[in-house]
Structure formats: structure tokens, C-alpha cells
Amino acid sequence: MERTGFLEYVLNYVKKGVELGGFPEDFYKILSRPRRVLIVNIPVRLDGGGFEVFEGYRVQHCDVLGPYKGGVRFHPEVTLADDVALAILMTLKNSLAGLPYGGAKGAVRVDPKKLSQRELEELSRGYARAIAPLIGDVVDIPAPDVGTNAQIMAWMVDEYSKIKGYNVPGVFTSKPPELWGNPVREYATGFGVAVATREMAKKLWGGIEGKTVAIQGMGNVGRWTAYWLEKMGAKVIAVSDINGVAYRKEGLNVELIQKNKGLTGPALVELFTTKDNAEFVKNPDAIFKLDVDIFVPAAIENVIRGDNAGLVKARLVVEGANGPTTPEAERILYERGVVVVPDILANAGGVIMSYLEWVENLQWYIWDEEETRKRLENIMVNNVERVYKRWQREKGWTMRDAAIVTALERIYNAMKIRGWI
Ligand SMILES: NC(=O)C1=CN([C@@H]2O[C@H](COP(=O)(O)OP(=O)(O)OC[C@H]3O[C@@H](n4cnc5c(N)ncnc54)[C@H](O)[C@@H]3O)[C@@H](O)[C@H]2O)C=CC1
Ligand SMILES: O=C(O)CCC(=O)C(=O)O
Question: Which CATH number fits domain 186-346: 3.40.720.10, 3.40.50.720, 3.30.70.1450, 1.10.10.10?
Fold first, then answer.
């Protein structure tokens, strides 16, 4: 497997965590490799005739704390090494959140936007069939990530249930509310990012009210972060996607997100410029340089790098995406006094909500939306508080160091007590 920059960066962060936490070197040796990797090839009959075969993966990184858990990415450029990096992040994230889960991640090398609805369904069902021997509701529980959504989870859970011959609702999470899902999961990651931002804004400035925000990426995470941050009193003045940035100094009309639930990505950015008088800046990278209090990268990994970290004007960066900040950028931001709330803390709302949905599914029980959101919010608030306190105690550490060491402690203790190390 060829290592990508992303995997190198994640391993670099883990290695630093193992050193800072005073763990034995063998612990790093174990964590630096996934327990199991499955490579699959999925043939799909194309509408125009003929077949395309798509390569996919399911990486199971570590299950010391419980069943493997993590999303599935549909992206044309995703590699096996990226998937390993994402699976390692899931092990850390699930540990930090206090969930009874290990870490995993899946991926298919495909641009889902280029498939028809029928082709997408065939691919999703084909992927579920291909990984079926290695997953299960107490074994490995996938969910959405970039390029996948609740409809895709519905096809996958249906396919898996057909193989088993009975309904298995808990084998995939983030399903539609009509099919064993919980309405909170659709916005859970963005809601969690907003809660983490609000809690950190209280620490830095005494509150979130009136603080200006720029958000990169208007997919599932970005758009719901914008929605909830505005509800909490922040002023979202810029949002971006691959084609460019929508900017309005007085604050964007974020209600448009709720009113146009079907729209995401570039289409949503365009809506702000046509319906909300926002200025459109054609260069998507303009988002980094804006004079705002808070910047939320919520698109993809490796976007804040050594070459642009110096341009970030925000005092607080909250990682909605997984792995958006490279180690070099992290050092530059740290030296400039920019606080970075790390991915494994900030975007854990998605998997925390997945856990709540899974608990409902295993018991065939249903919680209502308000009750579930309250549970999610309490867990997020407690987790931010725990990591913040640890960070304050350890001079010279970044907030990521504090989060990773806290996550590693739980994993190490479980390995120790099980006799694995
Ligand atoms: N969906 C979830 O529940 C969770 C997602 N994440 C992470 O959050 C990030 C976003 O995920 P989703 O919102 O689910 O994906 P998504 O596929 O719904 O949206 C991603 C958006 O980012 C845009 N984008 C890609 N590159 C960009 C760039 N350079 N500049 C601006 N926009 C760009 C895409 O066009 C798309 O609209 C990923 O890193 C993912 O791993 C993390 C935790 C949970
Ligand atoms: O909800 C889940 O299990 C997936 C979450 C995920 O993939 C992530 O946090 O990156």
C-alpha cells in the first residue's frame, strides 16, 4: 500500500501522542497498522450499456473498545491509504467520545455525482454485499461520510437484511427516519460542530453571540454547522464549496438551508448569491483569508497546509472535516496563537448520534427528536470540557495533543486489561 500524505500526517499525530502520553513504543507499533483490510471490486451495469467495475475498501483498524465503527466514503480520488488514515481517526474519535466502539472506515473510488440514481443504488447494494461477510450489528457498523447519505444507508441495510433473511436495523447507522433512523442524525455532525464552537467561544470570548464565522464546504457537515451556529447567535458571513465563496458582511440568511434541504454544495452557495444578495467570489480558497473570528473547514482533508496557514485570520479554527490541518500548518497556527479544536473532538457528533441510533435499533426502541438532541448535546459539552481542562493543564501542548492523549489512554488501558499489550 502506497502511503499518502494524509496517512503520514495521521501517523505523525499518533506518534506524537504516544510520546507525549509516555506510552511504550510497542503501542504505536500496534496502532500504526489496521487489524484487517478488505479490498472489493463492484461491477455496476451502466444505463448506457456495458459495465464499470469500482474498487472499494473496508478498513477495520482496532476493536479493543467494541465493534468497529465508521463511515463509508464515495469519492473518485480516495485511496486505500486515505481509508486507513480515516479508520485510525475513528479509533481515536470513538475512544475520546467514550463510545463502546473501535474504529473502521470504508470507501469506494467513484464520483457518485456521475452515476444515475439506479447505478448508485446498484453500487451501494453491491458494496454492502461485498463487505457483508465482515460486518454485522455487533461486529462492524458502517454509516455515511463524504459522498454518501441516508438513502444509501437505506439501500445497504436492505441488502444486508435480505442476505440474512431478517431485518437487521443496527448494522448501518444514519438511516432515514422512515427506516429505523432518528431525525437528529441528518444534522448531528454539524450540530455537534456548532456545540463545540459555542463551548470554545465561551472560553475564549465569554460567548458566541455576534462572532463572525466562515465555513468551507456546504455538504452535510458544513451546511448544518452554519444552520446551528446562526441559531446559537453567531453571524455566518461566508460559506464556500468547490466553485467559490458566498460572502455577505451583514451575515447570510442561513434559514435558506432549512428551507432548501435538498440543495447542497455549489448549488447552495449559488442560492446565497441569487436569493440573499451575497457577493460571489470565484476563487474557493478566498475562504481562508477572510477576516472572521471563527473558521470551520468542513470539506475534506489537508486543506490548511504550510503554504496557507499563515493567511488564516480567525482566532478559532474548528475542524468539521477529518484531517483538514497538516502537522506543519498546526505548528504555524499554534505559534500564531490560533486555537484549533481537533476533528476527533469537534466532529464527533455524527458518530455519537450513530451510537444513540444503534442503541435504539438494538432494543427496537424509539426516542423522540428533542430528547435525542439533548443527549447528544450533553455528551458533546462534557467532551469539550474534558479535553479543554486537560489542554489547560499541559503546557506546550496543542488541543489536538490533549485530545489524542486522552483517547490513547482509554485504548491503552483497555488493551492492558485485556492482556493485548
Ligand atoms: N457526514 C458525517 O456525518 C461526518 C463527516 N465528517 C467529515 O466532514 C467532512 C465533510 O463531510 P460531509 O459533509 O459528510 O461530505 P459531503 O460529501 O456531504 O460534503 C462535502 C462538500 O465539500 C465540498 N468540497 C470538496 N472539496 C472542497 C474544497 N476544496 N473547497 C470547498 N468545498 C469542497 C464538496 O463539493 C461537498 O459539497 C469530511 O472530511 C468527512 O470525513 C466527519 C464526521 C462525520
Ligand atoms: O456515524 C458514523 O459511524 C460515521 C462517522 C464518521 O465516519 C466520522 O466521524 O468520520
Answer: 3.40.50.720
Which tens digit of pLDDT belongs to each residue from 140-185? 999 999 999 999 999 999 999 999 999 999 999 999 999 999 999 9
Q: In this predicted model, what pLDDT tens digit does every residue of 346-387 receive, in sequence order? A: 999 999 999 999 999 999 999 999 999 999 999 999 999 999
CA–CA gap between residue 355 and residue 66 (Å, rounded): 12
* 154 alpha carbon, distance to own chain's centre: 20
Q: Cell numbers of 54, please? A: 469500482
Q: Ligand 1, residues 145, 224, 351: which to mutate, most atoms within 8 A of Cβ?
A: 145
Measure 94 CA to ligand 2 centroid, in angstroms: 9
Ligand 1 atom, smallest distance to 221 CA: 13
Q: Quick one: fold of 31-171?
A: Rossmann fold (3.40.50)
**β-strand partners of 42:** 54
The response to whether residue 244 sits with its C-beta less than 6 Å from ligand 1 reads: no
* Residue 71 Cβ < 6 Å to ligand 2: yes
* Cell numbers that stand for 108 in this block: 469506494
The ipTM (two decimal places) reads: 0.98
